[in-house]
Specification:
Number of domains: 2
Structural class: mainly alpha
Helix content: 55-70%
Number of helices: 11
Radius of gyration: 20 Å
């Protein structure tokens, strides 16, 4: 261990103290686009988030919102949808494996097909395997609100009609996953927000990750 840095020694000792965690991290590294070292860095980041308000080692929605907006009570439609999509087990919290697997989708090297499927789940508000017109309308209205754009009802309906016409190939009034894949392939700009370049070098991305809460202040150095 004489050639190890202080940080590497600490990581090594952590693994010795918690072999089950080391096994989990190794499994996640083999199943995602992150290396073992990157998984360790993500775990430090996850710990900072998951102990920000409710200290139970899981990310609750309030903690998720706090990380995104520095406000645990912020109301944001897209943040709610993102949290719900990260919550793969649908138990109301984000656990570490869900956190890593979901972030892996945004990795620059993640296959486009994976990004397309993740975005489909984001739009599938009812979790029934389809994007229906009312779901699409809710997403469009939320997007316009985020952009502070005010369109007439007729203009919104025009956007919906055009999207449904282009995407709903079998004419059943809703978009299934195969239709969505074809639609996105013709409109690749839809995926522009599905890649986070910093995830390619996650160990350098958060040199000083600080969360401020009303309860206490945590500083996690990755």
């Amino acid at each position: 261990m004489t050639n190890m840095t202080v940080k590497e020694c600490c990581c090594f000792l952590k693994k010795l103290r918690n072999p089950s965690r080391a096994i989990q991290h190794a499994r996640l590294a083999s199943e995602t686009l992150f290396s073992i070292n990157e998984i360790e860095a993500l775990y430090d980041l996850f710990e900072g988030l998951s102990y920000a308000i409710i200290e139970d080692g899981r990310i609750h929605k309030e903690e998720f919102l706090l990380a995104l907006f520095s406000n645990s009570s912020m109301q944001n439609f897209f943040a709610d949808r993102l949290f719900d999509t990260f919550d793969i087990k649908k138990n109301g919290v984000i656990e570490f494996d869900e956190f890593v697997r979901s972030l892996s989708v945004f990795h620059p090297d993640a296959p486009e097909s994976v990004k397309i499927e993740f975005m489909f789940r984001l739009y599938d508000l009812k979790h029934n395997g389809f994007i229906e017109r009312d779901e699409l309308k809710e997403m469009v209205l939320a997007l316009l609100s985020e952009m502070n754009v005010d369109l007439s009802e007729d203009a919104v309906e025009g956007i919906l009609n055009k999207t449904i016409l282009d995407a709903d190939l079998n004419g059943d009034g809703k978009i299934d996953i195969e239709e969505w894949k074809i639609f996105v392939s013709k409109n690749p700009s839809i995926l522009k927000n599905m890649t986070l370049p910093l995830l390619r070098e996650i160990t350098q991305a958060f040199p000083n990750f600080v969360i401020h809460t009303k309860v206490r202040e945590l500083e996690v150095v990755v």
